[in-house]
Amino acid sequence: MRALILLGLVGLAAQLVDGSLGMAYGVTSTTLLLAIGTNPAAASATVHLAEIGTTLASGISHWRFNNVDWKVVAKIGIPGGVGAFAGATFLSSLSTEIAAPVMSLILLALGVYIIIRFTAFGLPRGNLGKPLRKRFLTPLGLVAGFVDATGGGGWGPVGTPAILASGRLAPRKVIGSIDASEFIVAIAASIGFFVGIGGENIDFAWVGVLLLGGVIAAPIAAWLVRHIPPRILGSAVGGVIILTNVRTILRSDWVDASTGVQTFAYIAIAVIWVAAIAYSVRQYRADRDRESVEAVEAQQRASQERPEEPVAS
User: Fold this and answer.
1) What is the rounded distance in angstroms from the CA atom of residue 189 to the CA atom of residue 149?
2) pLDDT in tens, 53-79
């Protein structure tokens, strides 16, 4: 019972983070399942089955808060489902020991770009509103879906930073669209796992409690992402990407860093991350105050330039 309660709390916390930042449900939940001895395929299958419900709840919640661009969902979700099915069916024979650190290096570079771009300059507005092309979203969906199924998580960490970096979609729309499209990915991956390993290795009680925690958190997260300023949200997302992928790299066979080195790296990243968020908060408040002053001045100029109406005789 204690394990089920813990899994439920993990599902709630993971979905709260995922729905607010567009990533981390699969990574968090799968990490816990692997830590207690679940084999990788069964762990990923368990999480993806739970995600069918959590992503549906999250997608509906984001839609109700107007956080979803359905054109992006269609363009990235369908190829994402294809990639997820392929990744799930071949997970038992596929080694990700080499692929994981390579992908982490790419994601780390994107994370560094995002945290610098949003912290120092705020939301990229030059491309905001421009359409996201199929030639960009289709291969992104295929890669993200494949990584998500083989690694037990990755749809958000791959998709969210790539679309954020384009600067064509507001952060809340990016997160809402990624969360909504993950429903397709979760279904495709689950079908692939049933084809590959069957259902005998999956504990459906674990699926249920992960699902329950995620469903409870979904509407709260969708509300949060609508009210968190884009500049602050971008800094927060960048920090999550950096911390997650540095952890993967340091623990890979390429580096195999000692516990002391890992601890030092995590502390250093955490300090920089907190400082970046604090700076973004300060700059957001300054920008908001400046915009308020400019709006008042614009109203005053408009009232002064407005011609006086002639007085009726």
Assistant:
1) 6
2) 878 888 888 888 888 889 899 999 999
